[in-house]
Design goal:
The protein is of the alpha/beta class. The protein is built from 14 helices and ten strands. It has a ten-stranded mixed sheet with strand order 1-2-4-3-5-6-7-8-10-9, sandwiched between helices. The longest helix has 18 residues. The radius of gyration is 21 Å and the shape is globular.
Length: 364
């Protein structure tokens, strides 16, 4: 192991975790985690997706940890954590682990969470747990990024379907190497595509190889089944939650396309309690934190610090600037009110009113 993966492993450490009965008899497991920034600052927990790990966040650690205590872990079956064969890898056990990590390992009572891909589902399970009063952690902000949080609008790949199926998975995984998996992801889920010698793609290959992660891919991808069973419950819990929520999406994603984010925003987030925002990164694919790390970090910091523009639009005139698509609202305006507001604006402009304030720049 070398390069980015070795650096990441050396910057972290491990703690022991024994999963509940629903996750099988395996345990205790060694769970990898890492911390960055001022230990006394407000905490920000970054939650990774499938089939990757906390190393997904490598490119945004510097800007985020300048203002927050940034904390990450690898769930069982991923990254540098243990990957026992035959374990029941699931979203509910991982939400329990995430809460244990934040409350017991980090000593937090309140936390902001930024989640990606499969991590979105873990975070939504945590929201549901909080809604039931079942947990010991308060979630104060939630950022949801590219992931299939509404499966009917997803576009699962042939590879995902083959690995998910118990009949086809053994043959596929027997022929798959960590390098092949990483190369395939680099070619299809990053914009522009990345080659195997790219630092991020090489690091993925190393983390897939660690503890023979390819061998448990069929088990870890079963989260999609759990997702389908609990999808409505989780989204309803989010809609009822007061936690401030931002949806941040990379435009070029074809597996978790923008229509997924738009549906969840309109049906479950736009009109819920809390200060909620919907953002687009126009030059990013599924791994938006790699494709546009500076822009991604800028959006997250603005959301957490309540510094986002009031009006929708790009943050600057720069190519690829983040676009605020929408803000939370109590209800949709009527057609009549929209026309009335338009007429009022035209009257003001006709009376010589100055131009409206432009969108803030990224560096303001």
């Amino acid at each position: 192991m070398d390069g980015r993966a070795r650096e990441w492993l050396q910057r972290g450490s491990f703690f022991d975790w024994t999963p509940g009965a629903q996750a099988g008899a395996h345990g205790p497991l060694k769970i990898f985690h890492a911390e960055f920034g001022d230990p006394g600052a407000d905490a920000l927990v970054l939650v990774h997706g499938f089939p990757t790990s906390s190393i997904d966040w490598f490119d945004v650690i510097e800007p985020l940890s300048g203002e927050y205590r940034v904390c990450l872990l690898d769930f069982p079956g991923f990254g540098f954590s243990d990957k026992p064969r035959g374990a029941q890898y699931g979203l509910a056990p991982d939400a329990e682990l995430l809460e244990h990590y934040a409350a017991r390992v980090l000593g937090l009572s309140s936390v902001a969470v930024v989640a990606h891909d499969r991590g979105d589902s873990v975070a939504l399970e945590l929201v549901a747990r909080c809604a039931l009063g079942a947990g010991e952690l308060e979630l104060n902000h939630l950022v949801i990024t590219n992931g299939n949080v509404f499966l009917p609008l997803s576009s699962l790949t042939e590879f995902q379907r083959l690995v998910l199926n118990a009949s086809s998975a053994p043959q596929v995984l027997a022929a798959l190497t960590p390098e092949m998996l990483a190369a395939g992801m680099g070619a299809s889920t990053f914009t522009p595509p990345r080659t195997p010698d790219d630092p991020a793609i090489a690091a993925l290959a190393h983390t897939f190889a660690y503890n023979d992660g390819v061998s448990v891919l069929h088990d870890t991808i079963q989260y999609l089944v759990e997702r389908s069973t609990n999808e409505r419950k989780w989204l309803d819990a989010l809609a009822d939650s007061p936690v401030a929520t931002a949806i941040v999406w990379g435009l070029y994603d074809t597996v978790s396309p923008l229509r997924v984010a738009a549906h969840v925003w309109e049906r479950h987030v736009a009109s819920k309690r809390g200060e909620n925002e919907f953002w687009l990164l126009p030059a990013a694919n599924h791994y938006l934190q790699h494709d546009q790390p500076d822009e991604f970090a800028a959006v997250v910091l603005r959301f957490l610090q309540v510094r986002s523009p009031q009006a929708p639009g790009p943050l600057s005139a720069a190519a690829g600037a983040p676009i605020l698509l929408d803000r939370s609202r109590s209800e949709l305006p009527s057609a009549e009110s929209v026309l009335a507001a338009t007429a009022q604006l035209e009257d003001l402009q006709g009376a010589g009113a100055g131009p409206t304030r432009p969108a803030d720049g990224l560096d303001s």
